[in-house]
Every structure is written in C-alpha cells, then in structure tokens.
Amino acid sequence: MIKAIVLIQSDAASIPEAAQTIADFEGVLEVYSCAGDVDLIAVVQVSRHEDLAELVPGRIGKVAGVLNTDTHIAFRSYSKADTEAAFNIGVD
C-alpha cells in the first residue's frame, strides 16, 4: 500500500465543505483542518501510484475551494505502535 500526506490550501470560506468532501473520497483515511501554511492535511492510502494520481489531482484538486495541493509520499513509518510491534515479534 502507498500512504501519502496531502497538504491542501483552500479558500477560507470553503474549508469545512472541502474537508468533508475530501474525507468522503475512497482512499482518504483522515482529513485535518489546521493552522499554518496549509488549511487541510489529508492522509491517504491507495494500492497503486496510478490510484494516487487519480485521487490527488483528479479528485482532491478539483474540489470546490481547493486552491493547491502538495503531496508527500511516505516511505517508512516510525510510529510508536510500529516500533513496539517490531520488538514483540515472536513473543507470546
């Protein structure tokens, strides 16, 4: 699976509607509104790079109010849960 983080700039008046529309797309795991240089952050997971190409510019980029997207593909996870699971392999 391919996981990516999509940083989304949106028209301020459209943030709630854009966020909900994006959250409803297949392949979108979570959408966060946030402060800073971007208005929304979407965490997406798809099977193929072609699916990512369809989702981000093909769907997210066309949502009313979305001005710009910046996609970052994740290579490896360093979450606490993943680290603990790795150290517990084979332990019953």
Question: Helix and strand layout, with pairings?
Answer:
Elements: E1 2-10, H1 15-23, E2 28-33, E3 40-46, H2 49-55, E4 66-73, H3 80-87
Antiparallel strand pairs: 1-3, 1-4, 2-3
Keywords:
alpha+beta; 92 residues; Alpha-Beta Plaits; globular
Question: Outline of this structure?
Answer:
The protein has helices at 15-23, 49-55, 80-87, and strands at residues 2-10, 28-33, 40-46, 66-73. With 92 residues, it is α+β, with helices and mostly antiparallel strands.
Describe the protein.
By secondary structure, the protein is an alpha+beta fold. It has one domain: Alpha-Beta Plaits, CATH 3.30.70. The chain is 26% helix and 33% strand. It is built from 3 helices and 4 strands. The chain has a 4-stranded antiparallel beta sheet with strand order 2-3-1-4.
CATH class: Alpha Beta
Round the Cα radius of gyration to an integer and report it: 15 Å
Distance between the termini: 28 Å
The third-level CATH topology is Alpha-Beta Plaits
Let me know the average pLDDT: 91
CATH homologous superfamily, by name? Lrp/AsnC effector binding domain/regulation of amino acid metabolism (RAM) domain
Run of helices and strands: EHEEHEH
CATH architecture: 2-Layer Sandwich
Strand segment tally: 4
Whole-number count of domains: 1
Low-confidence stretches at least 5 residues in length (pLDDT < 50)? none
The major β-sheet equals: 4 strands, antiparallel
Could you estimate the helical fraction of the residues in percent?
25-40%
**Helical segment count:** 3
